Amino acid sequence: MSVARWTDTGTVHRVLVRNGLVNRQVQVHRRVYERWQREAPMQLWQTDLMGGVFLADGREYKPVTGTDDDSRFIVIASVLVQPTGRAVCQAFIEAMRRFGAPRRY
């Protein structure tokens, strides 16, 4: 005899309700989603310092990216030899020199 494997808790709950094994509960959705995406380009940039790539000699290079929130235009795409705060700031400054400063970052 095979045993069904259930991974979807919603399905399990519906089967239990259908068979009278549990009482139906009213679901309360408390999540309130606030839209944070900006309405026009150059209002907000998102930056990210990602996990690095390790070289054979043990050095780690880290990609840093910056994306305009509205247009999704890539304003920063650099690989940092030394992933320090100063190096990240330098990549950001270079992007602002090239594209101008966003209203928020």
From TrEMBL:
PROSITE patterns: INTEGRASE
A biological process term (GO) from this entry: DNA integration
Gene3D superfamilies according to UniProt: Ribonuclease H-like superfamily/Ribonuclease H (3.30.420.10)
SUPFAM superfamilies membership: Ribonuclease H-like
Integrase catalytic domain sequence ranges: 37-105
One GO MF term attached to the UniProt entry: nucleic acid binding
Protein name, entry field: Transposase InsO family protein
Organism, scientific name: Streptomyces spectabilis
Taxonomic lineage from the root: Bacteria, Bacillati, Actinomycetota, Actinomycetes, Kitasatosporales
